Structure to design on (281 residues):
């Protein structure tokens, strides 16, 4: 039985990856900065890991066959935190690294996550790079969830479309990648359709049975809302870049990569909404 170390295991995607790997019969180690606050499924080994504390790297990595590497969210300093992890994984004999990057980052060579991609590609390790688009779960348990519950989505997305994808489908790709030994591959992961936010909120309204309204903002107004909510300036700037990408239509592409890897189509936004309807009630 192969052992996979999953970083970011307390987040939406990390938790989904734990489930998908366990279902396929892998032994799973899950990381957390504070083990006392972490709760993982039965059968998952928990280990302390902190990107900013290199002393935690070796105890977490030793003895694993594969590493699922997830960057800290909205962090422009991510290369300085993750590239040393990749180096230690190689030194400790890890065979395969699956890195979760972001949709479209391969078009911007100086982007933080692209720099990590390049480091991994040059490392000599067997690697797979996944580039998912915006998560559907942003609406249910992520940063959009509080305002969705209140009846609105306030973003500077214009009328740009996004091929939203569920973390459950990304997790299935991760598990299939380890199971099938896919190496030297780069996959751009999307849902089966591209929706603007007015359409997405209309679907939510239909499923929930009450009105959810999309309120298009200017970039400046969105940034102000985020600052007022206490978001660090680096994250405000990062999100601003992401939604400029949406407004210009660069998040609208639909790929077949989920089906290519897993053998099945990813779920639609409406199917996701129906599966998670209790999140908004």
């Amino acid at each position: 039985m192969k052992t996979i170390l999953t970083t970011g295991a307390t987040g939406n995607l990390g938790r989904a990856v734990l489930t998908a790997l366990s279902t396929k019969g892998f032994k799973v180690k899950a990381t957390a900065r504070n083990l006392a606050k972490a709760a993982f499924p039965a059968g998952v080994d928990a280990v302390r890991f902190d990107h900013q504390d290199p002393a935690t790297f070796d105890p977490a990595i030793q003895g694993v066959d594969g590493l699922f590497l997830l960057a800290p969210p909205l962090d422009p300093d991510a290369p300085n935190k993750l590239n040393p992890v990749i180096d230690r994984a190689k030194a400790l004999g890890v065979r395969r690294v699956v890195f979760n990057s972001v949709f479209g980052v391969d078009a911007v060579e100086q982007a933080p996550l692209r720099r990590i991609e390049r480091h991994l590609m040059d490392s000599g390790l067997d690697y797979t790079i996944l580039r998912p688009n915006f998560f559907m779960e942003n609406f249910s348990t992520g940063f959009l969830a509080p305002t969705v519950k209140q009846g609105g989505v306030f973003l500077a997305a214009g009328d740009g479309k996004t091929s939203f994808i569920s973390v459950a489908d990304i997790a299935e790709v991760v598990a299939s990648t380890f199971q099938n030994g896919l190496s030297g591959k780069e996959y751009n992961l999307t849902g089966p359709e591209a929706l603007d936010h007015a359409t997405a909120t209309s679907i939510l309204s239909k499923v929930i049975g009450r009105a959810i309204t999309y309120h298009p903002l200017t970039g400046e107004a969105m940034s102000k809302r985020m600052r007022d909510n206490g978001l660090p300036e680096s994250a405000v700037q990062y999100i601003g870049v992401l939604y400029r990408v949406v407004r210009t239509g660069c998040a609208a592409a639909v790929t077949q990569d989920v089906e290519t890897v897993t053998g099945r189509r990813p779920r639609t936004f409406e199917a996701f909404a129906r599966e998670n309807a209790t999140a908004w009630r």
